[in-house]
Inverse folding.
């Protein structure tokens, strides 16, 4: 009985976390773009996720060029870190922005690309 209660509370917590919609985040005056040569130092061990995002960009640009990937060092007020990174991807009126560590940003971007594909905005894989 106790396990069932714990599982129900956990399910409610997960549902509430998934339903929460964060406020949109835009680059501010304190955000610094990450130079193109510095992306691999930001991503660190997550090179597999980065290469998957680059593959998605190539697929989208094969259909209609315009898929952009922008990394920022995200700072809010007096140099206090709030992130530490921000990743913004854009493609023909669609935009996805995520603030967090490199793994969170990459996973969120790949999820956004998947959702655009499911909605028919991007071509299917294959």
């Amino acid at each position: 009985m106790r396990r069932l209660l714990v599982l129900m509370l956990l399910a409610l917590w997960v549902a509430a976390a998934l339903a929460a919609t964060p406020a949109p985040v835009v680059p501010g005056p304190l955000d610094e773009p990450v130079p193109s040569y510095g992306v691999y130092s930001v991503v660190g061990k997550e090179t597999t996720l980065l290469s998957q995002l680059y593959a998605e960009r190539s697929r989208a640009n094969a259909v209609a060029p315009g898929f952009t990937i922008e990394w920022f060092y995200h700072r809010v007020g007096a140099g206090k870190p709030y992130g530490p990174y921000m990743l913004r991807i854009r493609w023909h009126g669609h935009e996805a922005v995520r603030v967090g560590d490199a793994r969170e940003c990459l996973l969120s971007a790949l999820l956004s690309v998947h959702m655009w594909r499911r909605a028919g905005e991007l071509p299917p894989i294959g």
In short: The first strand starts at residue 32 and ends at 33. The beta strands are 32-33, 68-76, 80-91, 94-100. Residues 2-19 form the longest helix (18 residues).
